[in-house]
Amino acid sequence: MTFDTIIRGGTIATASDTFACDIGIRNGRIAALGDNLGTAGEIVDASGKLVLPGGIDSHVHISQPSGPDIVMADDFASATRSAAFGGNTMVLPFAMQQKGQSLREVVADYHRKADGQCYIDVSFHLIIADATDAVLGQELPALVHDGYTSFKVFMTYEGLALSDIEMLNVMSVARETGALVMIHAENYDAIRFLTDRLERAGKTEPHHHATSRPIPVEREATHRAISLAELVDVPIMIVHVSNGEAMEEIRRAQQRGLKVYGETCPQYLVLTEKDLEGLNMEGTKYVCSPPPRDKASQQACWQGMQQGVFSLFSSDHCPFRYDDPKGKLTPKGRTSFRWVPNGIPGVETRLPILFSEGVGKGRISLNEFVALTSTNHAKTYGLYPKKGTIAVGADADLAIWDPNREVTISQSRMHGGSDYTPYEGIAVQGWPVSTMVRGKFVVRDGELAGTLGAGEYVPRAKSDYAKPGGA
Ligand code: URP
Ligand code: ZN
Ligand code: ZN
Ligand code: ZN
Asked: Both ends of the chain: CA-CA distance in Å?
């Protein structure tokens, strides 16, 4: 048998197993796993390395409009390049509806931005901001049918927040169409109340972003989202969970047999609200929602992953430049935390942070790492088994890791569009040295080897995770 490429001598890990064998790749797919596979156009030596399913980051924001005079730091080229250097082979950004926009228009707009501009594969979630009858009755079901099988709704943010009845209506469409609803759970009115009160007291520095949306804001919304989903009998994914109280709401729901899933992110494992207290405006570098909390919350997020309450670990990559009036230092943002764009870069550092802090420090197994960063994303969002595993027939989306390489995270080694990393100075052990999408290197031995436009759009199937529990 002959192959296009054989990856030889590596240790393979999937979500369930770790084993040593070679990988034969033909026509972009894994064609064989075994020893002495035969000849190939190219033999890649992976001895001493780990070969893992490429990371799938199912929560990233790219080229999203973020308010007047604010510009996101990444376009599809820079975001997918950065992702590839971080060991990812696929990202799932959001196609965000703005009030008054038809969803078809939204989807066409994001395809215009992404088509021909990606280094790795992409698929889109929708964001529903305008839950009109036309959107819910016609557009959304048609788009789910076409492979946009998940959508996010927001319980906060001006222009995005849905009321409870709108949430219920969107959830009903998800139930009817078999789509999965992702929920940003924070109480909008509570944040507005606290923000107004802080501003009246002159408390406007960046760290009050955290004070304005404390844990009860998130816990209450999480509880409410779960209750609404229970009424409709529809599965939901609570995204970017930051603390133990929200995590316990999800755990309780799961223990009652509800299909409620949870996601957490690197910022909730290694940052705290203290980081928002930096000198001058440095704290804006860490402004994201929900905000990083405290050490106990970090512990709880680890537990959530260890105990299976959280099935996904995503970056929530949402990059703005720091030293830029169109980024974190917007003129209005200098007057109050209220106006600082929310979000931080992280698509390139997600995997090394979890590998080092999780696998390296014995908090999770290598197989759990693969599940949390790749396999579960593919399963949750209708990409499995094409994506998210190393198996015969799957796409040859692989990351080759040097488990011993020691790296201090710094902006100088990042490949995205932002001008800072919130993880500056964190020392990690283990780094993805090569990334391959459908059998072609995108990053090889730390150098860009892919071509812009080689990344493809992947429509998604409906997920088993979205099937109602009590049907
Ligand atoms: O602050 C954040 N997380 N910005 C990104 C948008 C979101 O809510 O996920
Ligand atoms: Zn969100
Ligand atoms: Zn203060
Ligand atoms: Zn997000």
From this structure: 48
